[in-house]
Amino acid sequence: MIGRLIVVVGLAMSLVGLSLTQSQSVAEADVLTSGSTLVINGLDAITIKSAAGGLGPSERVAVVAKSLERFRRGQTVRVVADPGLRIALQDTTIVTITVAEAKAHGKTPDALADEWSRAINKALYVPPLTVLTENVELILGKSRTVRVIGSQSRMAQITVEPEGAVKVERRGFDLLVTPLAMGEGQIMLSLGETTQSIPFTVMAISANLPQTLQAEVTGNPASKELVVETIRGAMSTMLESQPGARIDFDVPPVDPLVPGQSRVYQVRTVVSAPGFAESRGLVNVAIKNVGGGRVFEDVLWYSNEPENLKGTGQLYFARLNTDTPGRLLWHHCNKTANPLVVQYVLANRSAVDAKVWLVGGDPEPHLDPTKAGFEAGKMFFPDWTNYQGSVVTVPARSVVPIVMRRITAEQTTSGLATLRLLPGGADDVVLVANALYPNEVSGEWQRQVSGSKPWLERRAIGVDRFSLPIVGKEKHVYSQPAKQVGFLYQVGGKLGFVRIGQESIASAIGGPPLSGNFGVQYVIEGRIENPGDVTATVEVVFEASAGYSGALFSVNGKVLPGRMLQTKESMSLFEASLKPGEARDIRIETIPLSGAHYPATITIRQKGRM
């Protein structure tokens, strides 16, 4: 029903294709037909759905309109039951209520007759000039309709205050209002001494919808969790909207994405910004899985100086080189009495966009430094081993946060990440870390000064609005952050030992080697054999031999549950029963974690033999 739809505040309607046929326009009642609907004084009164007497619904409603030419003030229609159920005006039948018509409305004939007579009488006696909308909210660039009802409404003179604010065109009982300029005003309807006003407000829209956003991920496959995270990140950081907009949306059901697969997700969205009209619509988020293979880093960026923060200042600086992946480790404790923010950003100093592939493990800060390092590894390790990563776009001459943690006194923030500057874009991208006070965080990021994966929540800002230097001196960069170790253990022979964190890797910039090998990947590949003539059980055990530590391992491609271990406490990594002559291959991966104590020991032995 056009009358019921058009009066909804803020809804822009179009009457294109609507045919209004005037039956009569008199002072007593203004009666029109719209298809098979009877419109009286601007109100949809009844709709006929069935044929009768050789006439279709539209023809029947035209007869009803013709019959109402006799209406005069003081008269009402009534239900007459003999002969036949009908609605009459005075002694003239207006419409007959058939069984088929009642069935089409899902009612009994008596109920439909009563409903129709009430609706017709209500429409006949609306005031001669009535505005149904108290205030009209208009969106700049979009027309909408406003219904004005009453027997005299279509004859009223129309003026606009201020002149030129909106354009008004009459469409039957509707006014098609097209906003021309932002601001407030009113549409005046005058008929003799009677005046009605329609206040209006013209606003720009919070966001133009629909929009299409594009994002890239990796993984074999990219997990459902990563896809959901990517949708949320795109909606939070890519959607074009007015400043200060709040973006509410519902993430649709998702499935994992295999390498090379693309999928478009339709996201129902509401955008509202102060001083702007609310936007509702769909956002299409297109996500592509651009790869699924493991990446092994060429360098380790080790950010641990100072470990104990006694003030603010730059903590780390490194340059990203195209297609040269690097692993980042950070570990900092707040030794001041005041909260600090530890912030790591990617700064694109060039005139073209950059794309950086990123896997991050950035947990909540902790009062226990060893626990902080363990939680960082527990978040990073599964995604890293399964190549679950995001492609982050750093716009030209802009800065994107990758770590943003607020730490109170004695709290430690610790994390691990892998970053790879992808080819085909900017080649002047740097990593900059700072400790700063919360009120020193750039304005656009002030609302959220803590949280994991900030690149999914905070938009890039221009380097001209970033208050900290994006230059610095590289330090603690180490080459080839991976150690490969092999072993062969035979039942009945000597115990096998692998030491973790003992042999340091070298500096890539001429500095001292890395003590403890924190953040270094260990790949341990070995073979266990049973040359004897009886079945034997072989076990592989990790021991926190140097002190309190966190332990994370992947064995033969499966990530084991991590554990916190006290000094000399151990955990089983692998166990197998070998028949005579049987052998097994084992592949173990681990990373020494921040805050833990090294060197630590892996022992390969026959179970029960110490």
Describe it.
With 610 residues, the chain is mainly beta. The chain folds into four domains: 2-124, no CATH class; 211-289, Immunoglobulin-like (Sandwich), CATH 2.60.40; 299-475, no CATH class; 480-606, Sandwich (Jelly Rolls), CATH 2.60.120. Helix content is 11%, strand content 43%. The protein has six helices and 42 strands. Strands 16, 17, 18, 19, 20, 21, 23, 25, 26, 28 and 31 form an eleven-stranded mixed sheet that branches. It has a five-stranded antiparallel sheet with strand order 22-29-24-27-30, with no helix packed on it. Strand 18 and strand 19 form a beta hairpin. It is elongated. 41% of the residues are buried. Mean pLDDT is 92; it is low at 1-27.
Précis, in short:
It contains six helices and 42 strands.
Provide keyphrases for this structure.
610 residues, Immunoglobulin-like, 4 domains, eleven-stranded mixed beta sheet, five-stranded antiparallel beta sheet, 42 strands, 11% helix
Helical stretch tally:
6
Low-confidence stretches: 1-27
Q: How large is the share of residues in beta strands?
A: 35-45%
Rg (C-alpha, Å) = 37 Å
Count of domain modules: 4
Which class best fits the helix and strand makeup? mainly beta
Give the overall form.
elongated
What share of the residues lie within helices? 10-25%
Count the beta strands.
42
Sheet bearing the most strands, described?
Answer: 11 strands, mixed
